[in-house]
Amino acid sequence: MVSQSPNSLARLRRCKIVATVGPSSSSPSGLALLARTGVDVFRINFSHGSREDHKKVIAAIRQMEPMIGRSVAVLADLQGPKIRVGTLQDGSFEFVWGEEIDLVCTAEQTEGEKFVPIPHPEIFEVSEPGDKLLFDDGRLGVELVSVSADRAVAKVTMPGTLTNKKGVNVPDKRLKISAVTDKDKLDMQTAIEAGVDFVALSFVQHPDDIKEARELAGPEARILSKIEKPSALEYLEEIIAASDAVMVARGDLGVEMPAEQVPVHQRRIVRTARQYGKPVVIATQMLESMINSPVPTRAETSDVATAVYQGADAVMLSAESAVGRHPQTVVAIMDRIIRAIEQAEDYHISLEQYTADPDNTTQDAICHAAADAAETLKCKAILAFTSTGSTVKRLSRARPLIPIVMLTEYVTTARRGALYWGVIPLVQSDIGSYEDMVKTGKQVASDLGADPDDRIVITAGYPFGRPGKTNLLQVTRVDPED
Questions:
Q1: Which domains are assigned to the chain?
Q2: Which of 12, 196, 245, 368 could form a disulfide with 358 if both were Cys (CB 3.0 to 4.6 A apart)?
Q3: Residue 235: how many CB atoms within 10 A of its CB?
């Protein structure tokens, strides 16, 4: 008989769903509805709203978990350094194609003078003739003709009307600014005190940015690096190695590079993250039309499918779930798209092209042996006892086509496991012996819907209760008499 538990083996969806919380979804009932529909991770966008409101939402998510019967993760997304133009005298400035304009390092346009104020000396410090600047999410652009310490002359390459406080993108250079602003520091403190599971760092340019964030956040924080600047791609492997997870943030990435290059780099980021065994999230405009429409476009459906075929750990909803008219519907449709792809005949073949070889460690050897044994013997599930979650991340990296059940005594570990591909995270009392391991594994598998004749694979570490010691693998049938 198939279990009807929300954690049933038969109901597992391997690729996870991240949903942004906003006015359309922040009520306790709205959060519970989205979680029951399929959300695994709730994203709190600290670019909007007050810290007090965010704390209330996080508390509501935690109170909801016992109601839905499973662990969910919370991702705090920091705003990061926002570079904007200053105040224009008339509130606007007309960019005419081919004309040369002045850019001045100041906060306000002087009355009677015609220039664009940019109060960011770090731009003038690193820029050179030939560099490009983009404004208003890439809608307007210029190419620099000459640059000094506080002024530049630029030729308009993308005309339009610039208004006050619009964003500035510098695609050609790494700016000498911290990835963590004063606002971010306060937001990070609020998020960590509220018990979030991941902190997303915006506009990462270099691995040093992650080091700085860790020093501020403390050793227990898990850092998700958002890859959204071309400069980050120069240090991609180092950034991924230094991070706990990464996000392909296609919004700003698509502003700062040609649109046709975004899918190329998405593929590269996913492949590299999977090689390092780090969870990777694909974000931005996945089902954008569903902010207003009750159905997605065919192109959006294909976009989600591509991410699933590439083996992304999660796909993310932004405005669709935060301010959209149909938050539950958009989650349900994303769930259906993912499940359809995961049942496709060529899904496993697609995953294999991204799968990395195991590291030369006992833990990796055990995890890959578990995945191979499970596939060869047609096992029902892999059950992994873990303290820190590292074993489960290694198993997830191997992308086995059977469920990975995380068994941990730590609630925080289980919540983080909600982001990992193919993982069912469960809070379970610690085991003290080999017999406990086998007995508990069989009971959990049975509770999740496995039949007595089904085989399962169990992994754990000996001595029991010590983290980082996965060195046991057991294949058994669920039947307690076996």
A1: 13-80+180-352 (3.20.20.60), 92-169 (2.40.33.10), 362-477 (3.40.1380.20)
A2: 368
A3: 18
